[in-house]
UniProtKB/TrEMBL annotation, chain A:
<keyword id="KW-0547">Nucleotide-binding</keyword>
<dbReference type="InterPro" id="IPR027417">
    <property type="entry name" value="P-loop_NTPase"/>
</dbReference>
<keyword id="KW-0813">Transport</keyword>
<dbReference type="Pfam" id="PF00005">
    <property type="entry name" value="ABC_tran"/>
</dbReference>
<dbReference type="InterPro" id="IPR050166">
    <property type="entry name" value="ABC_transporter_ATP-bind"/>
</dbReference>
<dbReference type="InterPro" id="IPR003593">
    <property type="entry name" value="AAA+_ATPase"/>
</dbReference>
<keyword id="KW-1003">Cell membrane</keyword>
<feature type="domain" description="ABC transporter">
    <location>
        <begin position="19"/>
        <end position="249"/>
    </location>
</feature>
<dbReference type="InterPro" id="IPR003439">
    <property type="entry name" value="ABC_transporter-like_ATP-bd"/>
</dbReference>
TrEMBL record, chain B:
<feature type="transmembrane region" description="Helical">
    <location>
        <begin position="94"/>
        <end position="114"/>
    </location>
</feature>
<protein>
    <submittedName>
        <fullName>ABC transporter permease subunit</fullName>
    </submittedName>
</protein>
<feature type="transmembrane region" description="Helical">
    <location>
        <begin position="149"/>
        <end position="168"/>
    </location>
</feature>
<dbReference type="InterPro" id="IPR035906">
    <property type="entry name" value="MetI-like_sf"/>
</dbReference>
<keyword id="KW-1003">Cell membrane</keyword>
<dbReference type="GO" id="GO:0055085">
    <property type="term" value="P:transmembrane transport"/>
</dbReference>
<dbReference type="Pfam" id="PF00528">
    <property type="entry name" value="BPD_transp_1"/>
</dbReference>
<feature type="transmembrane region" description="Helical">
    <location>
        <begin position="61"/>
        <end position="82"/>
    </location>
</feature>
<feature type="transmembrane region" description="Helical">
    <location>
        <begin position="28"/>
        <end position="49"/>
    </location>
</feature>
Amino acid sequence: MVVQSTAEAITYPAVGAELDIEGVSHAFDIDGATLPVLDNVNLAIAPGEFVALLGPSGCGKSTLLRLVAGLEKPRSGSLREDEVRISGPHPSRVVVFQDPTLFPWRSVWDNVALGLEAQGILKTQRHRVDAVIELVGLSSFRNAYPHQLSGGMAQRVALARALVNDPKILVLDEPLGKLDSLTRIAMQAELVALWQRKGFTTLLVTHDVEEALVLANRVIVLSDRPARIKADIAIARPYPRHRGDPYLADLRKQILGLLGLEATW
Amino acid sequence: MSTYSVSDTTAAAAPRAALTFSHLSGSYGVGLAASLAWLAFGLSCLYWPDLGDWSRTGSLGIGAIVIAAFILFGTLSVDYLGSAGQALRKRAPWLLAFGAFVTLWEVATAKFAWLPLPFFPPPQSILEVYTDDLPKLLDSVFASIKLQLGGYIIGATVGFVTGVSIGWSQKIGYWVHPVLRFIGPLPATAWLPIAFFTFPSSWSASTFLIALATGFPVTVLTWSGVASVSSAYYDVARTLGAKPSFLVLKVAIPAALPHVFVGLFMGLGSSFAVLVVAEMIGVKAGLGWYLQWAQGWAAYANMYAALIVMSLLCSGAITLLFRTRDRLLVWQKGVVKW
């Protein structure tokens, strides 16, 4: 199965979709007051790009992801996937949240099968579920329930649940944020390997600068709320990247400076 | 995985290692005492003459001695009986306590009348009810089960559907919620007088009341269960391509199920109360009616006998409900064992 998907990636290198965010502003109404969260965000992401969104806590990164996922509509501006306006959620844009949010009443297999079941194609596509569970290395846990899994395993299941839909855009909302640092490093490597193999466009929200630098080939730094794009940094370094790379260390200092933390570093 | 196997082997090795003399005499001791208690019960039946006229004293005494023999045999050969032996060893203290209790009961009623007699019938008179009045008692049991089951299933179904609807749809909630608040808290028994003359038969009236008593807690808890489902589950399902019907059937309902079972449990309790009252007042069948009838004839033994059967039935119904829940909710950790 793994071999097959590698072959696929070679035949169709660009399964990822293009994502255009144009003049998007958004706000929330809280207790009668309007709280602006996004301010005229413009971002064009090429097919297959791995883009990391960095920004201070509460700046509106996750809101931007919810708009991309189609879970909410922007107050103004537009978002387009391959030139088609995003008007609601669609399995071609799957989100992996910070909490794995596995359905506790479903086994690992049934959790991963969720998307195919919801789309009514599970009967003919069961092999895809098996393949993706194998891909994330959880074959021996396919019948386990979520409460029996560790945090890292649960997040892998969440990743498998997204990947089984063959998304064109994978939206990651701090998916490794709650993991311990060892599991985190291991899963960062897995994430890069999956992205390279599958070729989907990836949009990652994180507040870990190092994570953004190790994973992404483009880092977007957002300002405080309401979020605007402060910097757009291309990271032309080959994978696998090394955390000690002086080039990355230099970028890290620069980005922390943009986030207002230069004094400490 | 490996930790499980390790703890399994230690658990298996523990009893073997703990086969010391004191442990042995302790576990045998309780079993032997239990056997003696039942022997005492049997002998107390046979030794003293009855103060009243009861036909089953002899068979009860012999039965008790047979039980005593079984306990003795089971205790002595506990290591050869496998799981049955373990079960007996675990229950030995209860067998002892129960044997002592029935002995005391026998002596205090049939033999020396320390307790006033017609109101406190001896064990043999209850046995007599079970043997001699069995057809009538069984009829009552079946009538009760039929009535209870019909009302409960209707009430639980209507309650579940209503709860899901008002938890899911604000429009339905707008109309149903005030009605629920007005009618729900009313004890179902308060409807008795009205129900018995508005419904065509006392049976349909009772079914309605049992359904009402069941429906209210089921509705409220299903509703709160559906309403408290985390929106993150819906977000996940929606991004994976779920339609509204999928969100209700495969997200809201399974997530609400633990609450639903609390409602079903509470509904069961309050419907038992309504069942008995309805049977005592209007329905001419069932255990409630049997109790009422027995009281009319001052047949106190029949009342106790019916009470015991009723208790077993109610407890059995709750056990059945909890078993169903455990089966459906295996994914939950640490559910209460009944």
